[in-house]
Amino acid sequence: MIRNRRVVSRRTLLVGGLGLGVAGATVLAGCASGEAPEQTARLLPSAAPLPDRFSRPFAVPPVKRPTGKADGATRYEITQRAATVELLPGLRTEIMGYDGLLPGPTIKARRGERVIVRHRNELTVPTVTHLHGGHTPAASDGYPVDLVLPASGSYGHGHQSHTADGEITRGVRDYEYPHDQRAATLWYHDHRMDFTGPQVWRGLAGLHLITDDEEEALPLPGGDRDLPLLVMDRSFAADGSLAYPSLDPNLASIPGVIEDYSPGVLGDVVLVNGVPWPVLEVDAVRYRFRIVNASNARRYEFALDPPPPSGPAFVQVGSDGGLLAAPVEHNEIVAAPAERFDVVIDFAAYPVGTEVTMINKLGVGSTDAVLRFRVVRKAADDSAIPAKLSTIEPLRPGPDAPVREWRFIRERNEGRAHWRINGLDFDPGRMDAEPRLGEVEIWRFYSDLHHPVHVHLDPFQVIRRGNREQGRFDAGWKDTVDLRPWETVEVAVRFTDHAGRFVLHCHNLEHEDMMMMAAFRTLR
Ligand code: C2O
Ligand code: CU
Question: Which of 19, 101, 293, 465 lies 20 to 30 Å from 348 when distance is taken between CA atoms?
Answer without folding.
Answer: 293
